[in-house]
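fold-stage: in
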Amino acid sequence: MTYDLPCMSYMAMYLISVHIVNSNSRSSVGANHWRLNVEEGKVLKADDDLLFGNNHEVDDDAMFRIITNQRIEDGQWLVDSQTECTINDRSMLTAEQESPKNDQNKKATTGKDSVTKGNKKLLTCGKPANFTQYDHLRGITQRGEHPHIPEPEVAIMFRKKGAKASSDVDMTELESRLKKLKKQTPRTPSTYSQIGNFWRIKGNTQLSIECFRKALAISPNSPDVLLYLARILFNLQFLDDAIFLTRRSLAMQPENENSWHQHFTLGEILKAYGHYQEASLHFQQALRLNPGFQRAEAHLRDMEGTPNPSMTQYTLFIILFLIMGVVFGVITSMEANYEETTEGKPQRHFNRAMAMRSMKLGINPRLIRMRKMNGV
């Protein structure tokens, strides 16, 4: 039996080798590979026939292009513009532009600052900024989750001079005008802020925030851009972030320029907080800088009929203090009356010797006391 042992060891080594070869074969690679499904927004397992079959869809995998076409420039990780994934740009398209019939005709490159669909380009600010000093704010961190909130009142800043107050702004004309501005003066804070305000009117908060982030990446202390971003976050009820950006905008506003808009925005935020006293101060300051501003006057009238929470607290404190004072006075007067009553009564002392003598003589002690009281 001993001469069969080497054969058994060789057989075991052969089986292990076959198992290793089979585990590394093409038939099992698919289970260890993953691909990005852009439509579903998930990372899924790649099928065997997808990786090594006749289907070459894996060549168009966005995540695969990111991994294989990376490069480092000036210490930053970048992706070649010819093969860069445009997942963020696809999320910017509307539902009509995302129809399955036109999926094969979509072409987008981040080297250009717009998304192309046929001959029409979507007005964007290009690739998002890598970093700004305001990215720590929660409203900016969660910019991809914000709902769409249109701000039609923003269109007033695009109204032509001399136009009537009731005249509407042609959004198609405005979009073409901003596209021309983008070609003439690209990569400037003014261009990015105007495109951001355009998307505020449309209600796309994500695109507008990205445009303002690009403007702040170039000019981090721009008071106008800070105020625009604060208005967006205020509408989204990120009050702490909005008040921080508005105060920053007010601090960065030059002294020779009017700051009524910053004071008005601070008044609205503080009113939403319930700080009516401080809010009224900012509304009054806005009216001094912009007399006759109806919205500030309306806020002041509204707060005049609303009880101030701080005044209500002070009133309750005064009432409690008065009640405690009255109770303390009643208790003190009762103690004083009791002491006076005790002092007015005659004190009776027990005379033990007289009591013993009266007991021996058989005299009633009460008779003796009565005689003393009668003066006998």
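fold-stage: in (second)
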Amino acid sequence: MDRRPVLHRRALLVALALGAAAVPAAAQDPVKVGLVAALSGQSAKSGEAITRGLQVAIDEINAGGGVLGRRIELVRRDDESNPAKGLVAARELVQREKVAVVFGGIDTPVSMAIVPFANGAKAPFMGVWAAGTPITRNGAAENYVFRVSAVDELVDEALVAQAARKGARKPGLMLINNPWGESNEAGLKKALAAAGLPAAGIEKFGNDDIDMVPQLARLREGGADALFLVANVQPAAQVVRSLDRMGWPVPVVSHWGPAGGRFTELGGPRAETVDMVQTYSFSGRLSPKGEAVLAALKARYPEIRTLSDVTPAVGIANAYDAMHLAALAIARAGSTEGPAVRAAFYEIGPYQGLIKTYARPFSPGNHDALSREDYIFTRFSGPEIVPLTD
């Protein structure tokens, strides 16, 4: 009997079996997501917080089987708060690492440098801290930029309302001299006009400036009875130190930049009097989701012993929710291809997050998942950020 047909069939069956075995192996290649953030320098705590929020969410997703049957893997790059370095890092993550989503860090100028590349490369870019209004509202015909974070225009409305509650009638503006400051200058002018309040003046300063007394003196002479502060840790600390040197006890209502680092250490006791907007705090009574995330943080990062060790909570919370929403989009898309993931972001249904329950977080007309109603005001108490109770 000719055994060749039998042998041929056996060989074919072996080949098919080997091929079938190869599919799960290939499917185990991880779905990579990228992070471009300040991982060193005076804002390194922000990058650390974002990393922790992303990683805890990734741990949860992977424990549930991952996405598309594959584990998620985080690939990080340090932008050093430098727009040029952030752009190079984003390109590397998309073109070399083939990440499905790039997550952005604290600095609006860095994010603004990445936005045109993300839209041109059709690569989803998810902001989890930088609040510059034009980051998501960038005018692109096909916008690939989404955000789970504050938005300057909405924050500015909240800052004006908070200052008015403190009795301000003629506040002054102290703004970092970069695109983030410009975004808030436009937003604060609009919010003040809507509230019928005049501005005592608008002053700018650089990231490395030490003495802010001249700018503050002009605002005091202009009759400022409160100050709006927009800056990250180091320059914001210099502002409050300059106020101390002047002996001027004017109320300060701040954007959330000081939360990204060692504000109380650099700014001194006056730093604990600054009202600061946030989207979340682990202090106070937590939801079951909050308790679970806090427990997961402590389990993964043994150095977390007290609530001051989860500061800044805003970076953790925004990143945690953003990672889960991105995973839902990838799963719904059934793909890691940028256009498919972008379209799927619009189809995400209800998700019970850490900050809130998201009904429909994104739509073609709105790429920002959080609204003004999701903001709270806080202060530093030592190294811990606590919600205001008054």
